[in-house]
Description:
35% of the residues lie in helices and 26% in strands. It has seven helices and seven strands; from the N terminus they run βαβαββαββααβαα. The chain has helices at residues 12-20, 45-57, 87-97, 132-141, 156-160, 169-173, 177-189, and strands at residues 4-7, 24-27, 66-76, 79-81, 101-111, 116-127, 162-166. The model has no long low-confidence stretch (mean pLDDT 93).
Amino acid sequence: MNYKILLASASPRRSYLLDMLDVTFRVASSNVEEIIPPDMSGNEAPAYLAKLKGEACMHLLESDEILLAADTVVIHRNKILGKPASHYEARNILMQLSDEIHQVITGVYLSDGVKTISSSVATTVQVDRLSEDEIMYYIENYEVLDKAGAYGIQDWIGWAKIKSITGSYSNIMGLPTNKVYQLLSNFSKA
Length: 190
């Protein structure tokens, strides 16, 4: 596929995943406040936030490009667990996820300036019990502040402490590549 993408995200993981799809892209960072309306459900939030990010970068879109924006949230017991603001908050989030099941939902937004497509992908993740020592080890040795749910599936925690995954692995990293590829294919046919 020969696409030119404007990726409305500075996430190195999203760039890596787009590289794996063999698409040509450039990066634009969107500086939008990620405020979710209080009456919005956690399942709707990722698509809403992806659209906000996309619309903030629309003025940078060139005529031969498709804008791609995404946002990922972690939902545990019907509560959104965002990016932690501190290591203390990361510790608390990881304690909540310990020996529990949560969902990772990524909203995807595509636009060429005329047509738009929006979608979400959910993945269910079961975490093994995390001891206090394991949580502190992870926080001290890995970057936790830039990740929803305070962990990266591609890091130590993903290899050592994830019991099972139902759904897309790349979605947990921040971009459901299979869905993005499918949406891009359908986008170009319409």
